[in-house]
């Protein structure tokens, strides 16, 4: 009888440890997220399931074109692409991205741009000064984010700059559905 109690206790202890480790990993390191909506098409599809690396920005700064998850409100997280970094000026003119007046290629948008009629643009013209906050350069601890589906995305053009405190983490792995499994890069 004592042996059965000991086995039962060992199982309970093992389950508690497993749940504790899972809780710590999910809370501090990695978490799943489901893409909701078309704002990152064609890179991400509605319903794609991804893993968010929650600790990456504790050891390094965001880089241009990282795909990040951030708190847009108390109840809603958004997934967008980092376009502008602290200290930079961002503008889009004639569907071309300019960082500090230098043209920057967005290769992830090229196929979409090539398939659009010549009279249509993917990204409407804007300058950083015209966005909420009216900054001349992006302040420290902030980034400018845009969705890849530029004409159907709620991003920094409406929300303003995103503070590092709002960022949950970086995502680059689609793990579901099976036919979409991939590691994303620029």
UniProtKB/TrEMBL annotation:
GO MF terms held by the record: signal peptidase activity
Segments traversing the membrane: 12-35
Subcellular location: Cell membrane; Membrane
This enzyme's EC code(s): 3.4.21.89
Broad class of the protein's primary localization: membrane
Catalysed reactions, as listed in the record: Cleavage of hydrophobic, N-terminal signal or leader sequences from secreted and periplasmic proteins
Start and end residues of each Peptidase S26 domain: 9-176
Domain of life: Bacteria
UniProt cross-references to PROSITE patterns, sorted A to Z: SPASE_I_2, SPASE_I_3
Keywords on record: Hydrolase, Membrane, Protease, Transmembrane, Transmembrane helix
Membrane topology note: Single-pass type II membrane protein
InterPro entries from the UniProt entry: LexA/Signal_pep-like_sf, Pept_S26A_signal_pept_1, Pept_S26A_signal_pept_1_CS, Pept_S26A_signal_pept_1_Lys-AS, Peptidase_S26
Annotated NCBIfam families: sigpep_I_bact
PANTHER family associated with the record: CHLOROPLAST PROCESSING PEPTIDASE (PTHR43390:SF1), SIGNAL PEPTIDASE I (PTHR43390)
Stated family: Belongs to the peptidase S26 family.
Designated name of the protein: Signal peptidase I
Encoding gene (name): lepB
């Amino acid at each position: 009888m004592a042996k059965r109690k000991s086995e039962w206790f060992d199982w309970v202890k093992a389950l508690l440890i497993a749940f504790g480790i899972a809780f710590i990993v999910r809370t501090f390191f990695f978490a799943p997220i489901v893409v909701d909506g078309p704002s990152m098409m064609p890179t991400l599809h509605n319903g794609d399931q991804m893993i968010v690396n929650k600790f990456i920005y504790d050891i390094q700064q965001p880089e241009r074109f990282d795909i990040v998850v951030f708190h847009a409100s108390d109840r809603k997280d958004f997934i967008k692409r980092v376009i502008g970094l602290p200290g930079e000026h961002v503008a889009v003119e004639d569907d071309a991205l300019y960082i500090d007046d230098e043209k920057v290629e967005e290769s992830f948008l090229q196929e979409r741009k090539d398939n659009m009629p010549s009279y249509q643009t993917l990204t409407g013209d804007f300058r950083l000064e015209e966005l909420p906050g009216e900054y001349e350069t992006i302040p420290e601890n902030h980034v400018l984010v845009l969705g890849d589906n530029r004409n159907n995305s709620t991003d920094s053009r409406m929300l303003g700059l995103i503070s590092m405190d709002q960022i949950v983490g970086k995502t680059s792995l689609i793990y579901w559905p099976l036919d979409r499994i991939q590691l994303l890069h620029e």
